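Hi there,

I know you've been waiting on this one. I reran it after we fixed the sequence typo, so this is the corrected version. Both the input and the resulting structure follow.
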Amino acid sequence: MQVDGERYVMRVPGKSTELLSIDRENEVSNTKAAATTGIGPRVLEHVPGIDVMVLEFIVGSTMSAKTLQSPRMAARMAQSFHRLHGAPSFLRDFNMFRLIEYYLGIVEQQGATIPEGYSDWLSTVSEIERAVDAAALPPAPCHNDLLCENFIDDGTTLRIVDYELSGNNDPCFDLGNTAQEAAFDQDLRAALCEAYFGRPDARQLARMNLFALMSDVGWTLWGAIQAGISGVEFDFRGYYMGRWERALEVLRSDDLRRWMAEASNLT
């Protein structure tokens, strides 16, 4: 929106988003915390009760997978993550494994349709959780939903917007999640990992890859729930089936066991 020649962003909560485990108090608090690092937009106004926020309009280029796919941009992303992960502690925690359990409850409650065979892989999901927990990093303020379009290049810094699903989490989740969203190949994933940790780290790279997979596994359920409750004209079924098909490729691959072994330090 524009007022007196100045541009602002107004965030208005969507319909039934509590079913997606979106906590507006958490979003407002975390947006303010992220702003203190210069990575998130400043909150200029907040209307309690209806949780409408007026945010700083960030002048810059909205990113895409194509614009992020380079070692230079991976290094810039790592710099932004360091600043975000150093923000004051967020209000609530985020754990994709617990979120999957919650979403499965909503799926049952709402009678949502999920991909055939999804539940057959839940024991493997439990194995993945044990693998990533073996070298877990201390929880830090994380975004957790790093679509490419949530990065805005202001000419100096890659800013990060939209803190709906933010929460304290293992930093490797942000790294893996964004690598998945930006369709990073293994070379770019390794570059992002090295830029973030300051050195090559095979174990944390494996954890990144596992969290990238879990992004698809978890957001598959998000899409299935959205297909039933959202009033937005969008092909949510196509979205969640695409997520699940990509997840299945990894779940059925030899890479999965190798990554779990490397993450668990069993190799």
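Quick highlight: The two ends are 54 Å apart (CA to CA).

Best,
R. S.
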